Amino acid sequence: MERLPGFRDFYPEPVPSRDAGWSFDARQFIFGKWREAARRYGFREYDGPPLEPLELFTTKSGAEIVGQLYNFVDKGERAVALRPEMTPTLARMVAAHERAYKKPIKWFALPQLFRYERQQKGRLREHFQFNADILGENDVAADAELIALLIDTLRSFGLTAEDFVIRLSSRNAWQEFYERGVRNAECGAEGAYQFYQIIDKLERTPPEESQKKLAALGFSLEDVNGFIASGTPTAELASIIANLAARGLGDFVKVDYHVIRGLAYYTGPVFEAFDRKGEFRAIAGGGRYDNLVKLISGGKVNLSALGFGMGDVVLLELLSARGLLPQFDATVDVFVLIEDEAVRPQSLKLIQDLRATGHVVDYPLTPAKPDKQFKRAQELKAGFTARVEGAATVKIRNLKTREEVVMAAADAPGHIAR
Amino acid sequence: MERLPGFRDFYPEPVPSRDAGWSFDARQFIFGKWREAARRYGFREYDGPPLEPLELFTTKSGAEIVGQLYNFVDKGERAVALRPEMTPTLARMVAAHERAYKKPIKWFALPQLFRYERQQKGRLREHFQFNADILGENDVAADAELIALLIDTLRSFGLTAEDFVIRLSSRNAWQEFYERGVRNAECGAEGAYQFYQIIDKLERTPPEESQKKLAALGFSLEDVNGFIASGTPTAELASIIANLAARGLGDFVKVDYHVIRGLAYYTGPVFEAFDRKGEFRAIAGGGRYDNLVKLISGGKVNLSALGFGMGDVVLLELLSARGLLPQFDATVDVFVLIEDEAVRPQSLKLIQDLRATGHVVDYPLTPAKPDKQFKRAQELKAGFTARVEGAATVKIRNLKTREEVVMAAADAPGHIAR
């Protein structure tokens, strides 16, 4: 029986092969760095259900999204879907209890997200994402704080300003550009959305095609390219850049109006993190979405908001390519050798005492030859072996220094440094 | 918009109310203890997809289970289900790559599991479970090792032998009892399964009803109760108890043949953890299932196996009732006061430097009155406040000792103890 296509098994290291699955240890390493960075910035962790009412996602993204969802009708006749993103859940949770929390709310989550997409080879249908959001602060100081967190998260993996850059843009600036230039005011919101989609795909679309589509809305590709080339920061972007520069993070960010973020719901500054060599898809992306909480709460709660998402898959590829993933080994602190079955009971007591003081301990569950036991201790990269000798004495061997000491069994846990 | 009934939102502390949701911090506290105990015992963590082919679960549990599942047909016409338990996924994963791992395999996982059950008030449709399993070891020394992990996991929360007990039983013993006494050999496996179900429900069923059902299979309630009352350990159980006693864990376990574990797939020793006062449902349960890997792998791989599962919900109730849940607070190491906007840039640099050395730091994103800032520092239970004074000096105040020191900004991160 096989797992579903596009889903991952996470094996303990050593992972048999890349086909076999992914490394649980690498996943945990990444989660640890994500949590640690968020913690230093004073963000608090939350989570919601992986299964939500379908309406939560269509309210935000329109009915089109259903084609990309794992959605179904449950046994209670509810239309439900596996979450394709975390933001609607966050908006729902905050709206339900916004009075209970001081503003600004700084929260993060590490959800697993699901999208059903027509199968492409190697394309995943689930991934994990680091989501960090700030709610209840209009000032772009919040945008700077959030981008600083994004930068420091990537730096905590050993990535530098030579490895990645945050491309900073402004949905506002593009909106003004659109409103200044649109030929026909009747195009309205729908026209703006079409326009954003064209800009979003500009770098991946033949110029003639973009030109044609822009012309239909009353724009010229030349004007668009001119605006992008100018790179003049808006007052908001200038303020964000100055804030980041004061922190010593100026090298990690640049204005780049190619970035617009396709989704309809962004309202202010937007940004994406890219590897400088341009080998990978975006590492992370986000921006302001000041209207979403109001939309999800049916107008009951109005809270400005901004956030970013960083997936585990591109990040893993990048860290792997830059040699920044550590070696993950199964290791133990102490391997207890039981060469004489007569002392198994005393050995079990020793194992218990060592574990009770926090040591990671393994041992042969059943009788095994001494050389086989020692080989196993080496495979597990044990720091020490311990062997009960006589009624209440233990011989401890430091496998690095080869130093051997005999001591009372009761002293062994204290002797072995954590 | 509301979350689905039976699903939980996990909020950062302080959680607005129990109705609002559950505590993410309490969940993380429990996950941390689970991981730490497993680690000390040399168990390695794995995970699989929350969505699996439906067949994986029906192969193990029969078609009846479908009524309790979140199952559906995906857009690729595959019959799929949200996992109701982890063991089939584990068996699938191990069977696929068993040669890559040394035996015994000691693995654990903390999956979220899903069951659709007709709504009862307050009844959850998802929970998290600590699953620990040992594969590839026939000897009951593995059963003892696993039960020791279960005991030490519960002890790590502060629970003692006065709080809980492991009721140890034997599917083998019941199987022999059944085979000795069954009137009609034709009853076979189906009869045995019916018999196990009767025993499983014995404590919750009126005696006349059990008597009647047992009689249909050729048994008397008296004989059954006599066997249970005898409590004579089988050789296997005696060996497990001796092993645990050698570790000093004898007080945590007793033979109790009431326990049989309803599921059809158990093959050897079985056990459940209960609170001594009998206020809660089982805290954990498990046992041997030596045939499952063979079944799931279609006969390709044959590996003995045993494991237990411990859910987060009963555990949380028990810890809460015994006063063993710590207070979870939003706390920061340092709150940086910015009372003069002219020094905001230097303050941002200080914040960056403090965070870079691992400190948890918060500060006012926008101009705020000094007393409001200080109040926020107190709410966040800050250990220190720091305030830039002049070009490159910082005043640091220890909020516990009220000691104030002025120093060069560059020295501040080193001064503040982690």
Secondary-structure map with pairings?
Two copies of one chain form a homodimer.
Chain A: E1 10-11, E2 22-23, H1 24-40, E3 44-45, E4 51-53, H2 54-61, E5 71-73, E6 79-82, H3 87-96, E7 105-109, E8 112-114, E9 126-135, H4 141-155, E10 164-170, H5 171-181, H6 188-200, H7 207-216, H8 221-230, H9 235-246, E11 253-255, E12 269-275, E13 284-288, H10 292-296, E14 305-311, H11 312-321, E15 334-337, H12 344-356, E16 361-362, H13 370-379, E17 384-389, E18 393-398, E19 404-408, H14 412-415
Parallel strand pairs in A: 1-2, 3-7, 10-11, 15-16, 15-17
Antiparallel strand pairs in A: 4-6, 5-6, 7-9, 8-9, 9-14, 10-12, 12-13, 13-14, 17-18, 18-19
Short description:
The structure is a homodimer of 418-residue chains. Chain A has 2 domains: 10-321, BirA Bifunctional Protein, domain 2, CATH 3.30.930; 334-415, 3-Layer(aba) Sandwich (Rossmann fold).
Key words describing this protein structure:
homodimer; alpha/beta; BirA Bifunctional Protein, domain 2; Rossmann fold; 2 domains; five-stranded mixed sheet; 19 strands
Total discrete domains of chain A = 2
Q: According to CATH, what is the topology of the largest domain in chain A?
A: BirA Bifunctional Protein, domain 2
Assembly type? homodimer
Q: How many β-strand runs of chain A?
A: 19
Number of helices of chain A: 14
